[in-house]
Amino acid sequence: MIKNLLLIALRNFRKDKWYSLINILGLTLGITFSLFLIFYIKDELSFDRYNKNADRIMRIVSYIHERDKNTNWTVTQLPLAATLKKDFPDVEESARMLGRERTLFLKGTNGFYETKIYYADSSLFNIFTVKFLEGHPATALTQPNSIVISRTLADKYFGRNTMAVGKTMKTVYDLYKVTGVFEDIPTNSHIRYDMLISMSTILKPGDKNNGSNNWGSFNNFTYVLLKPGVTADAFNKKLIPMYDKYMAPIFTKYNVKINYGVMPITAIHLTSKLDGEPEETGDMSYIWIFSAVAFFMLLIACINYMNLTTARSARRAKEIGIRKVAGSTKRQLISQFLSESLLTAFISVLLSIGLVILFLSMFNGIAGKSFMISTLFQPFNMLLLLGIVLFTGLVGGSYPAFYLASFQPVSILKGSLSKASGNVNLRRTLVVLQFSISMIMLICTWIVYAQLAYLRKKDVGFNKEQVMKVTINTGEDERSKIFAMDNEFRTLPGVKVVGTGNNYPGSPGINLNLFTVETNTGHTDKGINCYGVDENYFKALGIPVVKGRNFSGPPDTLHSIMVNEAMVKHFGWDNAIGKIVKFPGDTSNHYLEVVGVVKDFNQKSLYNPIEPLLFFYSPNSNIIEMKLNPGQLQSTISQAENVWKKYFPQLPFEYKFLDNDFNSQYEADQKRGKIFASFSVITILITCLGLLGLTAFTTQQKQKEISMRRVLGASIAQVVTLITRNYLWLSLISACIAFPVAWYFMSNWLKLFPYNEGLSPIPFVLSALVIVITAAITSAFYSTKAALTSPATTLKTE
Fold it and tell me: What is the DSSP letter of 632?
């Protein structure tokens, strides 16, 4: 029987190739791009789950509370890890990871900068699942100056198929012994590393000044492996006494309260909003959005199938009537139509697999992922494909199957199809749903891109255009060389200003220090972000001094500081110049005096409000900013490279432009925006196919009416207008549904940004116009075809 059903289905496909092509095309597009979204969602949800004990691994985070400010950090103090294991039986293992700055590693006469480097305890491998290819995890990080590296770096420095363990790796000043090689850390990890250096390299045993007992400095990630059965919430409550026991003696006198949080590593990527995440994080709200989009794309494809199948009902009416007269039951007819639907879905899935393979690299580029063809054929994804066949086949084919099988044979064979024309209102409702979904996606896409454009163009308080940034790593910083090199940079014809600092706008790392600050009525203790700059730093970035003076040179080193306007406002200073700032607990006469106030600028991205900033005088720092003439960029870069090689021949010359570096903070939203925009276009395309189905149905039912109107003198334009205006009304109804829904979601999304333009009516109007014009063009296609059909062809049987 199944063979017979399939043969009849294939015969019907061949009989109406154009109809079958549109049906399969709509389903193929819906399935293909739903698969891409499902891959993306599955990957985002899989972060850190490759670890064997992922459900028991926690990261301890810090919540620092001041009177008027809260700071939420991913980092903790160095003694915390050992203390947790000693004090709490719930902790099976603990470990620390301390980030190291970008470092140059030498290979013969060449050098390579490596960035994903951490100091780590050897116990880390008892917590995380790390596959060792060489060496043993139990001993790999037990000795000072030992290092374990990824397979990629082992191949890079020592060659493929060469043992790396026992060999050495060099920096300009240090020598490390390779004690292990591990498989590359998966990309779906909240922290990725290529090198791990033993923690004892910097925290030498027996050195009382190594920071191991310093509860006042926050600088490392702390991980614990909880014993089976211990929950994060239960353990979190047990950490409350930690403040009184270890930190109160340091922080209570400054009115600073600290408590820890326990964050499961599997929740970090999608839920963390903390400062100092080591990798780009995701957003759970986008998971829900993309899940809804994937579902609605499949739903729209199914709606298309319903509309196209019922539109074709008149062509199969006589077939159904004859089958019923010949003895076919309703169940047999339903089985026939569902088999055709499932076969259509199966063919569409096969074509979708081909399209996924074809566009996979393009999607990887848009989404920032690294899916491979083998991803498609994983067991879960194969089951998913089977589920899609059943979902689209049964959902898309159920209504047409029951609708067509319900035709009355007597009415059909008499030539009357009026009562078997189906529920037109239902189909119109489905099209309104399609239009509404498409319009909502268009509006959201427009608003997302408008907001991102606003962030890129908004005045951030400094001039980031044509500012080239070069960095000399700490540890390789020779101030006399930097001083001489900076002076030579200033002689280049394409260079306007050269300034230095140990930080820059958009940098993820900035120092938060506790200071005793003079106020109008006394003194207060406050954590303030700070870094060092020279007298040319503000000139290079175009940041004006609004009160007092700029740094003037070395005499400012010991006592002078500058602040931003936000700090003046925060402390309510009537006159900032001359205000005193001291380090807490400093009983000497050493103090810092405010000599100048600079205009507020965005040190962080526009996701964050401007905070108080304090600047020390620090000449010849390791980050150099050069303001360049726009017409001489390439020649100036070449000249700067020659100067660099003169002073630091052992270091590769690398540079970035500040505008690109600052705007890179918005890359995650830009990627998601591109995904959303791409799928908005696809949704509209699928909707157009559905509209073709409904137009085909309507014109088919009204073909005789159209012919009569043509005989009586109606023009083609009048006929097209008659059919098209129905869909324009559907578009307007869709707008009434889409506008409030889009407004609700996007107004909440914009609240995430301290700086936004608010909601403009332009995206709503333009999106509605796109749908209206699309509906008009699509519906006009079939109505024009019907109007051009010779009345004699239609009326010859009358």
Answer: G
Least confident of 133-137, 219-223, 561-565, 710-714: 710-714
State how far the Cα of 424 lies from the Cα of 117, in Å rounded to an integer: 64
CA distance 729 to 771: 11
613-617 vs 523-533, strand pairing mode: parallel
Dihedral sign for Cα 769, 772, 776, 777, please.
positive
Residue for token digits 């007092």? 548
Q: Considering the chain, what percentage of its residues have pLDDT values greater than 90?
A: 38
- Cα 642 versus chain centre, distance: 38
By the 10 Å C-beta count (0-12 exposed, 13-18 middle, 19+ buried), 201 is classed as middle
φ/ψ bin of 475: left (φ > 0), alpha (ψ from -120 to 50), beta (otherwise): left
**What is the predicted pLDDT for the residue at 6?**
59
Q: Are 171 and 107 in contact (CB under 8 A)?
A: no
Structure tokens at 735: 């707008």
Q: CA 352 from chain center: how many Å?
A: 25
Q: Which helix (H) or strand (E) holds 512?
A: strand 511-518
pTM of the model: 0.84
DSSP H or E segment with residue 772: helix 761-788
- The residues with which 147 forms a beta bridge, in sequence order, are 178, 197
**Residue among 446, 554, 527 nearest 771 (CA):** 446
E strands along 265-416, which residues?
Answer: none
**Cα separation, 425 vs 694, whole angstroms:** 11
Which position has the token pair 């259509």? 344
* 438 token code pair: 């498409």
Cβ atoms of 145 and 175 within 8 Å: the answer is yes
Query: Which residues are CB-contacts of 105 (< 8 A; sequence separation ≥ 6)?
Result: 111, 112, 113, 114, 157, 169, 170, 171
Q: Are 105 and 111 in contact (CB under 8 A)?
A: yes
Helical H segments across 92-188, by residue range = 151-158
| Residue 212 φ/ψ, nearest 5 degrees | -65, -20
Our CA angle for 156, 160, 165, nearest 5°, is 80
Residue 727 pLDDT level (bands cut at 50, 70, 90)? confident
Q: What is the pLDDT of residues 588-603, one digit of tens each?
A: 667 899 999 999 999 9
Give me the mean pLDDT over the 776-795 stretch.
70
For 249-283, what is each residue's pLDDT tens digit? 888 888 889 999 999 999 999 999 888 899 988 88
Residue 516 contacts residue 525 (beta carbons within 8 Å): yes
Amino acid identity, residue 149?
Answer: I
* Cβ atoms of residues 581 and 591 within 8 Å: yes
* Residue with token string 């399939």: 6
Rg (CA), the chain: 34
- C-alpha 478, offset from chain centre: 39
List all residues 6 or more positions away from 705 whose beta carbon is below 8 Å from its beta carbon.
none
Provide CB contacts within 8 A for 643, sequence distance 6+.
Answer: 485, 488, 489, 492
Q: What is the dihedral of CA 722, 727, 729, 735, to 10 degrees?
A: -160
